[in-house]
Design brief:
Helix content: 40-55%
Number of strands: 34
Radius of gyration: 38 Å
Strand content: 15-25%
Structural class: alpha/beta
Largest sheet: 4 strands, antiparallel
Number of helices: 28
Shape: globular
Distance between the termini: 63 Å
Length: 901
């Protein structure tokens, strides 16, 4: 099969991905091998690929492909999340376009539309991941609302309810007025807002006006023609219709004159008591707090403590309810603007100030949340925090980077009960069934099926029929299914001792973002220990957030988020994968620049052209030159040295560094040095043949390099690996074993010596460049004193284009010198240089070195520094001194020779 002259990603990628699918190379079944399991963080079922997905799934694929090549039974399970709030919003939006309201439909009718939407749009993102090269076991594709996952969720709910961990109660919750559902605390994002602080006048009740008097010298009393009044500072004047009291701190001397009084709510004209509680912050505002028990968490606690009336003034959609009495039916934000105007006109506004504060927004819909009293279902979290904290802190579950352990600990040590109910139809319906008891009271049972629920209810009221039971209308929080993901994917909830859960669980690595450390990571750990008695995964690799090159978060509104599929079309999947990884150090934000994808594409072309170069060599039964023999020995040692580094980088999840290690090995070591060392000469324009031993070694090296590169760049490596030799149908680089031995001490010495050889060659090339001597001009290289590089003479002569490499006692008068380590080398340049210009250059170098030496000597003459600095630091300064003195001596010698010429 002829290799194309240019690399065409489109042809290569589609061909080999289909080949992998046809030969079931991503498939995994339990066997005797060590399992390597990864479960995909399930994207929203109706989502499309974005740059965050690209990063996360590239990392997973790299880890999975490397595990396969290590001989492990790699199983990467794909799937999608039903995303209750997001999907329901999409369906409601589509229905609105058709002139249909959700309220016009029954639950069953709405769910038919939701399933239609899911079938139409669901799975698009998983198909897009194939373009990236993701090697998921697609036969295992799961959905959080498929049969096994749904039954698992209901089973766990019932189990936790019966264990006493789930309860139903009236609590203050975070309410999303757009989605019309409760949210957990973790689904609220706090943002800094430029708000207003409104100072409102609460007049003392008419019947109390006469008894107002100054009680303390520090009293701050307000009075106008209407009488005495208190001033209350609030950021939410639209809630005054729900005020039940005004509260002061009993220790606040400013407001003791208000004790025992009643005040009038402005505009509303409701008379409310002044209560006292140490909760009030004396320093905030005026020290007078309006108490709205239905619409603030802390006010609610005050209301319970002081037995205050609770007035719920908001409808579920954020408009004012009948209970408000004013502005009924208007949106809360519109009311805030209007009530400020009305208060001013009624002369009930003392003043308004600019004020910066943090406001909670819905993580899903990005609208301000509304604290709201509501009957919801909760999961008690302390038990789960207790079982999930130590495994992470003791590194039984290892976090990379480690810094996220502190974030995790803070959350678990400050855990709150989890509000798990959502006022939605799309999702797992809570399996609670309401019914009437024999005495007419309402009760409920929790059961996995309606049949079981009826049997349980009939124990309390034998006359009940199925029609008498009413199932809870709320659904469970989407995360209540996601937290079971590593277990439910292998049916470990419903069939806890099956072959797959025992083989694949716990999973190996989780790759995810730190933004869902609370939503998902912590909760999966909790579920793992609750239902399997062990961790759900051994390692968690936290990616950063993908930002543009200016550091801005990518978003449609900024127009700075490229379409991943367009990038793949332009640069090829391997190029884009490499571009993502070049920018992706663990746990740090990724500054993505499209030029990195271009660099990836260029690297593809480099690999392709290097292969075509080697493939084009002709072989002959000739003796292996000494140059080639040494080069082969060196590169074999270099491979072992690099493989060791690579192993360490993968073990510590420094994936970006690992890519750079292989990149440099191929580009710098193999292409720039090894191939140049061994490539056959051209004589009279004709390429000479290469010996078979060197050629076979080079092909072996190329295969090893392709194997090392494969996890990062799967497509081009498969294409070239297939060209390297005869392959059977179904064979693939992804299942080829990569065996590279440990470097020996001799290997390390050889690699170190060749690094100096490179410096010698670079020194000669630098002389050529500085003296403007043509590359084809053969030069002589002298080593002054002892030649420690005689064994590499052939390589140095070839790579530096020398006619001679000699050892001399003193260098030639016309030589240009340089140092490698403590060895001095010289290139006699004769009439090839401008002597005066060379003297000027050397004198400038001498002046610089002498200044540097003076600074080092000054530091070493400081007794305090020598006595207290670490020994290694002092030794480093002494080394700088000796090196500088040797270089100065060499320059002075060269100057003397040139001046005496």
């Amino acid at each position: 099969m002829e290799l194309a002259s240019k690399y065409d990603p489109k042809v290569v990628e589609s061909k080999w991905y289909q080949y992998w699918l046809d030969n079931k190379l991503f498939s995994s079944k339990p066997d005797g091998r060590e399992p390597y399991t990864v479960v995909i963080p399930p994207p929203n079922v109706t989502g499309v690929l974005h740059m965050g997905h690209m990063l996360n799934n590239t990392l997973q694929d790299i880890l999975v492909r490397r595990a396969r090549m290590e001989g492990k039974n790699a199983c990467w399970v794909p799937g999608t999340d039903h995303a209750s709030i997001a999907t329901e919003a999409k369906v409601v939006g589509r229905l609105a376009e058709q002139g249909i309201k959700k309220t016009d439909l029954t639950r069953e009718q709405f769910l038919e539309h939701a399933w239609d939407w899911t079938r139409e749009h669901g799975g698009i993102i998983l198909k897009q991941l194939r373009h990236l090269g993701c090697s998921c076991d697609w036969d295992r594709t799961s959905f959080t609302m498929d049969d096994i996952r749904s039954k698992s969720v209901i089973h766990v709910f019932v189990d936790l309810y019966r264990k006493g961990y789930i309860y139903r109660g009236v609590r203050m919750v975070n309410w999303d007025p757009q989605a019309k559902t409760a949210l957990s605390d973790e689904e609220v994002v706090y943002k800094e807002e430029h708000s207003k602080l409104y100072y409102l006048k609460y007049y003392v009740a008419p019947e109390d006006q006469a008894s107002v008097k100054r009680l303390d010298e520090g009293n701050v009393m307000h009075q106008d023609s209407k009488g005495y009044y208190a001033v209350v500072a609030t950021t939410r004047p639209e809630t005054i219709m729900g005020d039940s009291a005004m509260c002061i701190n009993p220790e606040d001397v400013k407001n003791t004159w208000l004790k025992g009084k009643r005040v009038i709510v402005p505009l509303v004209n409701r008379c409310i008591p002044v209560i006292e509680d140490s909760y009030v912050d004396i320093q905030f505002g005026t020290g007078c707090l309006k108490v709205t028990p239905a619409h603030d968490v802390n006010d609610h606690m005050l209301g319970l403590k002081h037995n205050l009336e609770t007035i719920d003034i908001f409808n579920d959609n954020g408009t004012l309810s009948e209970a408000a009495g004013l502005y009924v039916g208007q949106d809360r934000m519109d009311v805030r603007k209007q009530i400020a105007i009305d208060l001013e006109q009624a002369q009930l506004m003392e003043k308004v100030e600019d004020y910066d504060n943090k406001v909670g927004f819905s993580e899903r819909t990005n609208v301000p949340i509304e604290p709201k009293l509501s009957t919801q279902w909760f999961l008690k979290m302390q038990h789960f925090a207790d079982i999930a904290l130590d495994p992470v802190m003791s590194d039984e579950v290892e976090f990379y980077p480690k810094k996220y352990k502190n974030t995790y600990r803070y959350w678990l040590e400050n855990i709150k009960d989890w509000c798990i109910s959502r006022q939605l139809w799309w999702g797992h319906r809570i399996p609670a069934y309401d019914f009437a008891t024999t005495d007419g009271k309402r009760d409920f049972v929790v059961a996995e099926t309606a049949e079981e629920a009826l049997a349980m209810a009939q124990e309390k009221n034998p006359a009940l029929t199925a029609a008498d039971l009413e199932q809870e209308s709320d659904c469970l929080d989407t995360w209540f299914s996601s937290w079971l993901w590593p277990i439910s994917l292998f049916n470990g909830i419903l069939d806890p001792n099956n072959e797959e859960i025992n083989y694949y669980y716990p999973t190996s690595d989780l790759v995810t973002g730190p933004d869902i450390i609370f939503f998902w990571v912590a909760r999966m750990i909790m579920a793992g220990y609750e239902y399997r008695g062990k961790m759900p995964f051994r390692h968690v690799y936290f990616t950063g957030i993908v930002r543009d090159k200016l550091g801005r978060k990518m978003s449609k509104s900024l127009g700075n988020s490229p379409d991943p599929l367009e990038l793949i079309d332009k640069y090829g999947a391997d190029g884009v994968r490499m571009g993502m990884m070049l920018a992706a150090p663990a746990g740090n934000d990724i500054l993505f620049d499209e030029t990195l994808c271009e660099q990836g594409r260029n690297f593809n072309n480099k690999i392709w052209n290097a292969f075509r170069l080697v493939e084009g060599w002709k072989t002959a039964a000739i003796e292996q030159p000494a140059t080639a023999k040494t080069a082969v020995e060196w590169f074999a040692a270099k491979l072992k040295e690099t493989a060791k580094t690579l192993d360490e980088q993968f073990k510590t999840y420094r994936i970006s560094e690992a890519l750079m290690t292989v990149y440099r090995l191929f580009w710098d070591e193999f292409s720039a040095w090894y191939l140049e060392m061994v490539k056959p000469a051209y004589i009279d324009g004709q390429a000479q043949p290469i010996d078979k031993a060197t050629y076979e070694a080079t092909l072996h090296f190329f295969e090893t390099l392709l194997q090392m590169l494969h996890p990062f760049m799967p497509f081009i490596t498969e294409e070239l690996w297939q060209h390297l030799g005869e392959r059977k149908e179904g064979e693939s680089i992804m299942t080829s074993q990569l065996h590279i031995g440990e470097p020996t001490s001799d290997d390390e010495k050889l690699c170190a010596a060749v690094e100096n050889v490179k410096l010698i060659v670079a020194g000669v090339r630098s002389v050529r460049s500085q003296k403007q001597i043509a590359p084809k001009k053969e030069l002589e290289l002298q080593v002054v004193g002892t030649n420690r590089y005689a064994a590499f003479a052939d390589i140095i002569v070839k790579m530096a284009n020398l006619k001679a490499f000699t050892t001399v006692e003193s260098k030639a008068a016309d030589a240009s010198a340089f140092m490698v380590d403590t060895d001095e080398f010289a290139v006699p340049v004769g009439d090839l240089i401008d002597v005066d210009a060379e003297i000027a250059k050397l004198e400038k170098d001498l002046e610089h070195l002498q200044g540097f030496l003076t600074g080092v000597k000054k530091k070493l003459s400081n007794d305090n520094f020598v006595a207290h600095a670490p020994e290694a630091v002092v030794e480093r300064e002494r080394k700088k001194q000796s090196d500088a003195e040797e270089k100065i001596a060499a320059i002075q010698e060269s100057l003397n020779a040139l001046k005496n010429k």
